[in-house]
Amino acid sequence: MKGISIKDIAQEAGVSPTTVSFVLNGKAKEKRISEQVSKRILKIASKLKYKPNQLARGLRTGKTKTIGLIVEDIANSFFANVAKVVEDEADKCGYKVLFGSTEDNEEKAKGLLEVLRYRQVDGYIITPTLNLDKEIATLHKPVVLMDRYFPNVKDSHYVVVDNFQGAYTAVSHLVEQGYKKVAIITTTSAQIQMQQRLEGFVDALKKHGLPAGKNVIKRLPFDLDRPGFTKEITQYLQTNKDLDAIFFATNYLGICGIESIRSLGLHIGTDLGMVSFDDHDIFRLHSPSITCVAQPVEEIGRRLIHMLIEELDHTSSSPKQIVLPLELRKRESSIPAVPHLDV
Amino acid sequence: MKGISIKDIAQEAGVSPTTVSFVLNGKAKEKRISEQVSKRILKIASKLKYKPNQLARGLRTGKTKTIGLIVEDIANSFFANVAKVVEDEADKCGYKVLFGSTEDNEEKAKGLLEVLRYRQVDGYIITPTLNLDKEIATLHKPVVLMDRYFPNVKDSHYVVVDNFQGAYTAVSHLVEQGYKKVAIITTTSAQIQMQQRLEGFVDALKKHGLPAGKNVIKRLPFDLDRPGFTKEITQYLQTNKDLDAIFFATNYLGICGIESIRSLGLHIGTDLGMVSFDDHDIFRLHSPSITCVAQPVEEIGRRLIHMLIEELDHTSSSPKQIVLPLELRKRESSIPAVPHLDV
DNA sequence: CTGAAAGCGCTTACAG
DNA sequence: CTGAAAGCGCTTACAG
Q1: Per the count of CB atoms within 10 A, which of A115, A225, B69, B119 is most buried?
Q2: Run of H or E residues at A322
Q3: CB pairs under 8 A between A and B
């Protein structure tokens, strides 16, 4: 039950705990411990399967070798996939991950931050909610933001994707496929990533000389549930029958969109073109398959954890702000077998 | 930077750290601290926004208020959803969650266990791999297993689903819909949950007087990747054209199965009936939609964490082994619009 | 080359 | 009714 401590080793080796600590922390050379003693200690430690008590070490050094990961929703495939990469890479570097979901709720996010703070995590990877910047500023530990950032906070570290370019590419692709009345379905969220997707959409339409007015921009309250989104989308589509393609600004909107379109008896691709932000198993397997702009999930995860660990080790040299490109994955929802013809 | 400690409060209140500790831990009454002192301390603590250092407390008490969650794959929707519920409920009880994915790899699981152990987690929720029972037995802390258990370890705590009943129901449903040559696609895993699903399949066929021989049981190596599964399934279907329905034993097999069936140009439901274990957004949204036996994810998560916390509080009274029922969700893949007719 | 001692921030048995 | 002291298991500045 009771673990092996440094004392046990010291006793068995006939030396002081100090010496054991030096040897076990690889400071034998530096502290000029004799080869002989050093070897003896190492042998005993491995015989006893000694594992340092991280709590004691943390209390003394102030480092817990733990990082806090705050995502919007761990059950969302994008965040779950990033979390997996983060955990994997952290593990390789000797760090463990404490996680939590904000549901994009400010209060919940603050609660998570507070708990992680007094758990003394060494650093944070945070998917911020709105207005979380003040709270984050009081953390006094390395923080890397993901998915979104605060435009007015200049010196923060983050890994995000090029939302503008992604949306722009997606919408341009639709236009090039012959769709002429393209709408965006997005949320009311005032967060930067959503703003940029909207801007990309508007810009693409303008560049192609197409109308980008209010009636092709549908904003849904971001705190609706799945059935709520589906119902709202259905309603919007019903009252805007002249639309011939939709750009969905998030994966869950895209998923709800599929349900809505189908419930109206419309055929995706031919009746109504569609592209969604963010790839998902569903989009690949759906029939017809759904075109999307995919995030480089693996790379996002790797960059996040490495940027944070570099900060923790004070070896930071690489750029502090990374904007990754998105990849347009063309599928049937925008390139129907029967070409879409404007009537 | 430096946090507020109990000493700071003691100083400001003009009492000893001991007294502060008693008051803050709600032992004022028990220790007969005067109302006056008590109130003063509480006021100062909240003014200073005192947060106890969990490391120091943990070192002293041996409790870290942390639980370890080991899943097979946090990126798999089933595990991600369970993880979310677990984290949520743990949070309500003042616990944080450290997590990791085993990929069903024994060595990786052992590594995770070791790290969590010397991080002094108070208890574990574990999706065990094969042969992990010895390792788990040496943990000397409360453990609740999920998704599977060790049949030869009688006194373990677990929350699982009734795999036999689920498979039995799924296959019976197929037979009742008129499918006559039903196969199972499963993995080579020797784990109990997979065995039970196989038994449910065999039993259902036997009960209905249908053949349940080797040629309707296809076992795939469980460590293949997605493309690997898809390829193997495609091959199996090609060489067994007489089959008219398939029961897929896991959600990822079902997903790969959809790809395989479609790549062969077969129509799900009419050409080939299908039911998958475990629900998934894809199954609901696929066209045709896919019948499945769904796990009660929410309830699994809640039961897991509550069982563990009861163990931690030594208030355990409820049953230690919970087997939850599965729900058959009938969809188009087994009830085609054009009825399946045996020729 | 090695060790005694202090201290991280708590809790708790003991004393008065 | 309250406090001094020990101790959880480490690390590290200091001494010799």
Answers
A1: B69
A2: strand A321-324
A3: 119
pLDDT per residue as tens digits for the range B236-279: 999 999 999 999 999 999 999 999 999 999 999 999 999 999 99
Alpha carbon distance B170, B331 (integer Å): 12
- For B138, counting Cβ atoms within 10 Å of its Cβ (0-12 exposed, 13-18 middle, 19+ buried), the class is exposed
Ramachandran category for residue B65: left, alpha or beta (phi over 0 → left; psi -120 to 50 → alpha):
left
Helices A17-24/A6-13 angle, 10° precision:
110
What's residue A343's pLDDT?
Answer: 44
Distance of CA A155 to the CA centre of its chain: 20
B56 contacts on A by Cβ (under 8 Å): 59
Q: Which residues contact B229 (CB under 8 A, 6 or more apart)?
A: B220, B252, B253, B256
Spatial CB neighbours of A11, under 8 Å, sequence gap ≥ 6:
none
Angle at B274 between CA B269 and CA B278, to 5 degrees: 135
Is B51 within 8 Å of A281 when comparing Cβ atoms?
A: no
pLDDT digits (tens, 9 = 90+) for A64-115: 999 999 999 999 999 999 999 999 999 999 999 999 999 999 999 999 999 8
Residue B233: what residue type? I
Q: Chain D positions under 7 Å from a protein CB?
A: 1-5, 7-13
**What residues of A are in contact with residue B285 (Cβ under 8 Å)?**
255, 258-259, 282, 286
Going along chain B from its start, the domains and CATH numbers come out as 6-52 (1.10.260.40), 65-161+297-322 (3.40.50.2300), 163-295 (3.40.50.2300)
Alpha helix stretches (DSSP H) within chain B:
6-13, 17-24, 35-47, 54-61, 77-92, 106-118, 133-137, 163-176, 192-207, 226-238, 251-263, 281-285, 297-312
B308-321 pLDDT, tens digit per residue, is 999 998 766 666 99
Greater model confidence, A328 or B29:
A328
Instruction: Give me the residues of chain B with pLDDT under 70, please.
Output: 1-2, 315-319, 337-343
Q: Which helix (H) or strand (E) holds A327?
A: strand A327-329
Query: Which segments of B138-191 does DSSP mark as H helices, in order?
Result: 163-176
Closest chain A C-alpha to B261 CA, distance in angstroms: 11
- Phi-psi group of A22: left, alpha or beta (phi > 0 → left; psi -120 to 50 → alpha; rest → beta): alpha
Q: How many CA atoms are closer than 13 Å to the CA of B100, on its beta-carbon side?
A: 27
Locate tokens 């039995």: which residue?
A: B168
